[in-house]
Amino acid sequence: MKIKLPALLFAALMAVSVLVGCEKHHTIPGQQNENNHETEEDRAIKDYVLELSEGASYEGQTFTYLGGRDENYPIKEEETGDIRSDALFKRQRDLEEIYGIDWENVLVDGSDEAADQTINEVMAGGDSFDLVNGYVRSVGRPTLNARVLMEMQDLDHIDLDREWWNQAMWDSYALDGKLYFLLGPINVCHYSDTHIVIFNKSVTEMYGINDSDLYDSVKDGTWTIDKMFEFASAIPENPQGTGTYRYIEPGGRSFLYAAGYTITKFDENGLPYVEEKLPREFSDLSDKIVPVFTDAAQSVFENPKKQEKIEDIYGASVDELFDDDRGLFMFPNTGAVEYMRQYDVRFGILPMPKLTESQQNYYCLSESYGGGSTGAVYVPKTVRDPEMVGRITESMAALSQIYIKDAYYNKLLKGQGIFDMESADMLDIIFTSKVFDMADLYCEGDLGSLGPFIKAIEENMKHDNSNFSSDYFANARLANLNIKILINSLDED
User: Fold this and answer.
1) pTM surpassing 0.85?
2) Distance from C-alpha of 90 to C-alpha of 112, rounded to nearest angstrom
3) 220 vs 144: CA distance, rounded Å
4) Is 333 in the same domain as 386?
5) How far apart are CA 198 and CA 352, in angstroms?
6) What's the rounded mean pLDDT across residues 170-185?
7) Are residue 291 and residue 391 in the same domain, yes or no?
8) Element (H, E) at 226
9) Which domain holds residue 80?
10) pLDDT band per the 50, 70, 90 thresholds, residue 10
11) CA-CA distance, 303 to 306, in Å (whole number)?
12) Measured in Å, how far apart are the chain's first and last C-alpha atoms?
């Protein structure tokens, strides 16, 4: 499906551009009317964008934005009252007016299709797409292997140190000091795809668990796996399956990252690798959580040996179980804060727990629910006007810090999604604790399976696997081979 949104006229909303000498001084639509509601930070960002645009006019040129996730595109080429869509529309409107461009959104059927179109276009020498949006696993991996992406450091006007670019991308995705895609509020999933813990407030009330004690443990640094087990022990075990469970579908790999461990390591030259000897962290963590998360009297979980899904075993989905007050803790991502409002359930929000109190920080994996990895933006290497793409991408990211952050983070998550102010504090902690892993780029396998290497790690964190050591070694060697292939292919450019 292709949606084309032509340049829009906002004469009634736009401030008039002032000509001084031969320069065009840009303004942002509606700026005069909105100034009374702007923060000092927002005004500084808009001033930055206007300064960046000085001397640049791309009248009559088209900027084409390709992607496969509809949440990153406005519903219509106008304000509709939908918070997220209106934010995306306003960002687009501003960029059209500031730079004089015609903006074209090309929405295709999923990230895989976005990757295919990008690769085919570049291989054919075409320049139809200026910026691409999609999952790191399903867009980043194939486009990197096909060598069709521009190094982001080669784009003028992009300041990678600014707050609208997630700085964790350097530690997670830089290949020999080079970045081929960027992460941040420019992509809506920056706010929707981060692993968290939510707890059912009716259940805490029912069993005498003080919600404030949960929040205080996070703030004082004592929110650990053991502390979570301690709180959950207030709920009797449920061997008959008719009562309340302590844990609903705990994901093992999210606890691994929460413990401060990443699958990918980097050598002294900044090149990635995977440890081929089973790391101690795996066994330490699995020894702690597997006995609890595989206890049918405590946890709701799938049975991989019998290939039984949760709906088959319990007669309800995880969301329905949580809604029916049959679980204390559940482990979704931040997108659940928005969609769980459709259920009649009050919940609180917590970051993923630490492994030990001595761990300095909390760590919350950024990944869509079900293993889809995280979203990013990419620039094809055949773009016809790299300077224009650099200016507009940087401006788009900066304005996202205003529009997307306000719409999704402040209004949808904090304004409409939470049930207490403590959860707002928790969200601030969660979004300063996001972590990523380059494993998205080299693990074999399709999107659903996460590749055998990651799948083996995930399942071992949830279920005892006597063959895990040998499985890990074989898959780690394959992962390192794939890393070398990836690095060598990029070095050929």
Assistant:
1) yes
2) 28
3) 42
4) no
5) 9
6) 92
7) no
8) helix 225-232
9) 18-192+375-416
10) very low
11) 6
12) 33
